Amino acid sequence: MNAVILQPSYIPWRGFFHQIHKADVFVFYDDVQFDKRGWRNRNRIKTPSGPRWLTIPVHSRGHQLQHTPIQSIEISWETDWNQAHWRTLQQHYHKAPFFDRYRTLLDLFFSRHDTLLADFTIDLCIALARELGLTKTRFLRSSTLGATGTKTDRLVDVLQKIGATHYITGPSAREYLDESRLAAAGISVEYMDYSYPQYPQLYPPFDPQVSILDLLFMTGPEAPAYIWGSREVSLPGEERAA
What total of structural domains would you count in the chain? Predict the structure, then answer.
C-alpha cells in the first residue's frame, strides 16, 4: 500500500497533488512543529508585476509559535484576510480561461471562518484534489494516529499504523531519511521526480513554483496532464522541497 506523509499547506503547488495522486493513503502530518517560514499558511500566485505571496495570518505568541504543532495553530481574524485573498485572486485571474469553473468552490471556502489553520487548509486541499479527479485516495491526519518517536522513527510508526508498504516522499528527504529504518520495517522508499511540462500562464515568464490554482485557472480539466500526464518537457531547477 502506497503512502505519503506531508505537512498540510495552503493552496499548494502541483507537486503536492502529484503525491496525492500516487498515494493510496495520504497523511496530513499535522502534529509536528509549525514552520513559520514554510508553506503551512502561505503560497505564491502570478501577477503582472511578478509572484505575490498570499499569507494567512496566524496568532503569534513569540517564540512559542515555533514550538506549536500545526494542528493547534489558530488563524488570526483581526483582518478579513480571506476576502482580501479572494479579491486578489479575482483581480489577477478573472481573465484566465477556467477561472469561472472554480469560482463557486473558492467563494465557498473564502467565506469560511475557521478557528484552526489546519481545518481550513486541509479541507481546501482535499476539495482541490477532488477537482483534479483524485477520488480514490484516503486522507488521514497524523494527529489521529498517536504516533511516537522522532524523525525517521516517527515516520515509520505512522506508516506501520496505517499498514503502508511503500513510502513516497520528496527528493529533499534524501538528506535526512534513514532508509535502513524503513527497510527494517519492510517499507520501500520512492523519491518524487518534480519534472513537469510548462503550461500557458497569463503573465510571462513562466514560473513553475506557484499555487495549484494557477494551473487550474489556466488549464481546467486538462490540469492532470501537466502533473502526472505528459512528462516530455522538463524544466531545469523546478525541483521544490516538499
Answer: 1
